[in-house]
Give the backbone structure.
Amino acid sequence: DLAIATDTDEQGVWRLFVAADTRVDTCSRLLQHYAFVLNRLAHRADIQRRLRVTLLAYDNPDAEKTATFRSGIAWTEIVSAPRAQLDALAAQLGIQPLGDDWCSATSASAVLVSPAREAWALIPYEAPVIMADNIAAIVDFVE
């Protein structure tokens, strides 16, 4: 079964799903990039507080490794599951991993999923200000 490691259980959460391997340094750096994206949403606190970056962790980390990778970052969630289940979810979302190219600019695009669990848009990996503007525009359109 799929499990999401999160510190919150809020209603109305939007999720950016990304395929990742928590053992790879580029995935740690990807969290820094998304921190800048969330920072760019500061003027839209209603969106910022409800946005989560949800990593499909292909290395299937245990609870200890998940906690270490997340480092207490409340807006990050980790989905741990066997590869076949992650492959099925990634295929549904259109974010299948590209070999061993984890979390690079060419493989770190995300899919924005609404609180109703509908995939709304592919959010390409771009400058944080562009990603934040795209996310805000989609949330505004849907809500």
